[in-house]
């Protein structure tokens, strides 16, 4: 049986996609799209925390094979890495992109062309990496790309620091949400990314994402995800991420069938060594404990562990 068409195809046909794009672009004039609520006029090239004006900045795009198995398939996930970020964790593993803004500005036509290029290359989805601050630009580009034949699922691959009001602009458009859930403790979120409201914001955002698309659905024949939520959680040294609390929230408040990737690849990147607790790599025993906490919380669908540990 053929898979259903991506959600945005119907949104294009009934005019919702174009209306949402216009609504989002209008919001740039007094930008409160993310929880930072900087209220700058990005249409006039004023910038706030995300340092992004009217145009999105793209660092790179390619067929990526390092994502979760249900996204990669045989031909890879079509990742588009956006520069800058609204969260700015001190330990970011893409520090040059998120903090330093390496990349180039692209208009909506150029961004649409990238989506179509990735589809032509055989990628199984379009995977927007760090999209929270460029939702308007994505939607405007999607109108162009969908009209020209884009027909693969969309993945919203974010840090979890998203306003529900902005996520609602994506309802019926995004097929797969892939948020991080980084911290359960407000103090850790304050110290690492100056966002003490992160646990509360990420909780609300995840509930909204799940309301829109539900648990992750995977095509049995090809093993590819086509709709739903996939949560990523990076285990931090010293249990700083609060894995147990996050897993209990997911299992009890979202769904015990939530597909979760508990990740082991923490290493001190960016400015992490400024914080003694984050200046060391993750120990294997800490990762094993986090996996155990996820299972004990009742999480039933854990991504197959790919252990990546740094020596020393």
Give your account of this protein's structure:
Strands 1, 2, 3, 4, 5, 6, 7, 8, 9 and 10 form a ten-stranded mixed sheet that branches. This protein has helices spanning 7-13, 16-27, 69-72, 95-98, 108-120, 135-147, 164-167, 186-193, 198-213, 243-254, 284-297; strands at 56-64, 77-82, 104-106, 126-129, 154-158, 176-179, 217-218, 225-234, 259-263, 301-302. α5 packs across α6. The chain is built from eleven helices and ten strands. By secondary structure, it is α/β, with parallel strands linked by helices. The protein has a single domain, classed as TIM Barrel. The termini are far apart. It is globular. The model is unreliable at 308-312 (pLDDT under 50).
CATH hierarchy: architecture: Alpha-Beta Barrel
Mean pLDDT: 95
The fold-level CATH name is TIM Barrel
Q: What structural class do you assign from the helix and strand content?
A: alpha/beta
Strand percentage lies at 15-25%
Helix content: 25-40%
Alpha carbon gap, first and last residue? 50 Å
- The CATH H-level superfamily is Aldolase class I
Q: How would you characterize the largest beta sheet? A: 10 strands, mixed
The ordered string of helix (H) and strand (E) elements is: HHEHEHEHEHEHEHHEEHEHE
Radius of gyration: 18 Å
**How many beta-strand elements?**
10
In the residues, how many domains can be counted?
1
Low-pLDDT stretches are: 308-312
- CATH class call: Alpha Beta
Number of helices: 11
> Based on CA inertia axes, which overall geometry fits?
globular
């Amino acid at each position: 049986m053929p898979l259903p068409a991506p959600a945005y195809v119907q949104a294009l046909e009934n005019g919702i996609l174009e209306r949402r794009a216009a609504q989002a672009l209008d919001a740039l004039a007094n930008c409160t799209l993310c929880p930072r609520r900087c209220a700058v006029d990005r249409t006039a090239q004023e910038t706030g925390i995300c340092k992004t004006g009217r145009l999105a900045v793209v660092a790179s795009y390619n067929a990526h094979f390092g994502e979760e198995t249900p996204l990669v398939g045989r031909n890879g996930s079509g990742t588009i890495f956006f520069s800058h970020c609204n969260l700015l964790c001190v330990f970011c593993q893409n520090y040059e992109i998120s903090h330093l803004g390496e990349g180039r500005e692209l208009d909506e036509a150029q961004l649409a062309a990238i989506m179509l290029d990735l589809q032509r290359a055989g990628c199984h989805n379009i995977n927007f990496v760090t999209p929270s601050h460029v939702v308007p630009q994505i939607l405007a580009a999607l109108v162009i790309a969908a009209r020209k034949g884009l027909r693969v699922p969309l993945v919203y691959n974010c840090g979890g620091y998203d306003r529900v009001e902005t996520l609602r602009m994506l309802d019926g458009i995004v097929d797969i949400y892939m948020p991080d859930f980084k911290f359960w403790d407000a103090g850790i979120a304050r110290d690492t990314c100056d966002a003490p409201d992160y646990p509360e914001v990420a909780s609300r955002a995840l509930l909204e994402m799940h309301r829109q698309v539900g648990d992750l659905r995977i095509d049995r024949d090809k093993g590819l995800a086509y709709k739903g939520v996939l949560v990523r959680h990076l285990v931090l040294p010293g249990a700083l991420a609060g894995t147990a609390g996050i897993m209990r929230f997911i299992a009890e408040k979202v769904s015990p069938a939530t597909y979760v990737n508990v990740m082991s690849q923490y290493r001190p990147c960016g400015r992490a060594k400024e914080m003694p607790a984050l200046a060391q790599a993750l120990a294997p025993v800490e990762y094993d404990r986090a996996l155990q906490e996820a299972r004990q919380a009742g999480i039933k669908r854990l991504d197959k562990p790919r252990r990546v540990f740094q020596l020393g």
